[in-house]
Amino acid sequence: MDAVVSGIVLAGLYALVGQGLVLTFVTTRTLNFASGELLAVGGFLALGVGSWSWLPTPGKLAVVVLVGGALGAVVHRWLVLPFARGEHDSRWLLSTVGISYVLLNLFTNGEGANPQRVELTRNPGTVEVLGVGVNKQSLVIAVIAVVVTLALVAASRWTSGGVIMRAVAEDPRTVALMGISPRLVGAVAYAAATALAALAGVLWASEVGATPGLGVHVLVSAFAVAVIGGLTSFWGPLVGAVVFGVVVQVSAYELGALWGQVAGLALVIVVLVLRPEGLVGRRMEAKL
Amino acid sequence: MSLVLEKVASGYGRLAVLHGVDLEVPRGEIVSVVGANGAGKSTLAQTISGLLTTTAGTITLDGTPVHRLRPERRARLGLVHVPEGRRLFGGLTVAENVGMGRHAARGRRGDPDVVEHLLDAFPRLRERWGQRAGLLSGGEQQMVALARAAASRPRYLLLDEPSLGLSPRLSSEVFRLVAMIAEETGAGVVLVEQRVDAALRLATTGHVIEHGRIVVSGDAEELRTSEMIRKAYLGV
């Protein structure tokens, strides 16, 4: 029971970053493999704006999220668009992985590898959930992940932006014929995805401290979570995160820490074999 | 005011398909472009709307050069393309599909909106309003495509094989609605069709396209009744 509850709670972080992956995949069929380092950017930005005593905490958070979003748009414009010129062009994979290494090394040179304490959005201590002591910060992250998921699901169903996004997912060329720039939709999706990564970075760095490698493992797990749940549905990361979190924690608890991650990634392979669209993902709509 | 193509060339990558097409479409008039399969009809429509790049020549819309603009910019200027195969968003409802069309009309609220009239003329769409477009029959889907185009408040309407896959009865229904849209919006219409007879009946001017060139142009009624042209170019 301990392992199940802590697994579910820990999964919030992965779900949050996984939502970003779904956002860009649905709209552009690309993924930002620098999301992990942009998460670290969020952590260091939190460190930077943390000293602005004139700005209240929500304002500081807003700055981090907005800067993160702007960086996402930059990544889309300069590292994705030029390298995703058609279905068979997957150079974006190399360009985003490339910038991720560049950022990782820049941070390591500039900031050193030791964790730096981040005070913004710190929630120390534990609370009891179903009789299990749970880290407060992890619980906050999990709640935010659920709220973000519900917001994205609602937006995609009931807002005109959501309708545009679903249309782009089906057929970007025809969306252009409706007077809407598919490139702009992609840029917005990248911005939103990176804003989420930056937010996750702040929250996570407040827990474990800001390090250059803050996002490396998070991205791997977020990717696993998004694949398990399905890259084509906003429910995907949340469902995937719960399944992944529980499997990892229970395996770690029963078999030892090493086996936790192994079981999680084995689960990815099993899902890819049995249900490539993910647990709640949809197969791509047939073009009309 | 008209849509004018001058010596327009285009194609797919290195494969040239159109070789210097001249075409003039005045507002309020229906111009049909007919020809055999592979003559370049769809290529022409896609080049005008910007899905394909114009490699030579010019396209002007009421005097504004548009051949270097992205397709979304051309749509915003009122150049509305109903692509071959309709290309509805199958996962979206009929209402959402028509709503997508409205985006192209932003900034042109003064242009007439005939969506309501179209729905009156084809009431079945109202019954299907909340259903996913992918579940509709071919005829209903074509009507949704027309309604979506009408929602864009077209100044010029490009129709690529609107009768494709439809029964003769449904085709004539589609043609009737096309004529209605043209009349009520005052849009110029480029109708690209394989159903030569029906297309030329609807149009005032007709053009025959062959191997990416316009080979014959003239009064639609004369083309339609000319035995020589039917035999030489259209194989009907």
Distance between the termini of chain B: 34 Å
Number of strands of chain B: 10
CATH architecture of chain B: 3-Layer(aba) Sandwich
Give the chain pair forming the largest contact, with residue counts: A-B, 22 and 32 residues
C-alpha Rg of chain A, in Å?
Answer: 19 Å
Number of domains of chain A: 1
Termini Cα gap of chain A: 48 Å
| Secondary-structure class of chain B | alpha/beta
**How many individual helices of chain A?**
11
Kindly identify the CATH topology of chain A. ABC transporter involved in vitamin B12 uptake, BtuC
Number of domains of chain B: 1
Overall mean pLDDT of chain A: 91
Q: Which residue ranges of chain B are poorly predicted, with pLDDT under 50 across at least 5 consecutive positions? A: none
Structure description:
Chain A: It comes from Nocardioides zeae. Chain A: Keywords: Amino-acid transport, Cell membrane, Membrane, Transmembrane, Transmembrane helix, Transport. Chain A: Belongs to the binding-protein-dependent transport system permease family. LivHM subfamily. The complex is a heterodimer of chains A (288) and B (236). Chain A is mostly helical and 288 residues long. Chain A has a single domain (2-274), classed as ABC transporter involved in vitamin B12 uptake, BtuC. Helices cover 72% and strands 3% of the residues of chain A. Chain A has a two-stranded antiparallel ribbon. In chain A, strand 1 (126-129) and strand 2 form a beta hairpin. Chain A starts with a helix and ends in a 14-residue tail after the last helix. By secondary structure, chain B is an alpha/beta fold. Chain B has a single domain, classed as P-loop containing nucleotide triphosphate hydrolases (Rossmann fold, 3-Layer(aba) Sandwich), CATH 3.40.50.300. In chain B, 37% of the residues lie in helices and 28% in strands. In chain B, the strands form two sheets. In chain B, strands 6-7-8-3-9-10 form a six-stranded mixed β-sheet, sandwiched between helices. Chain B has a four-stranded antiparallel β-sheet with strand order 2-1-4-5, covered by helices on one side. In chain B, strand 7, helix 7 and strand 8 (188-193) form a beta-alpha-beta unit. Chains A and B meet through helix 6 and helix 7 of A and helix 2 and helix 3 of B.
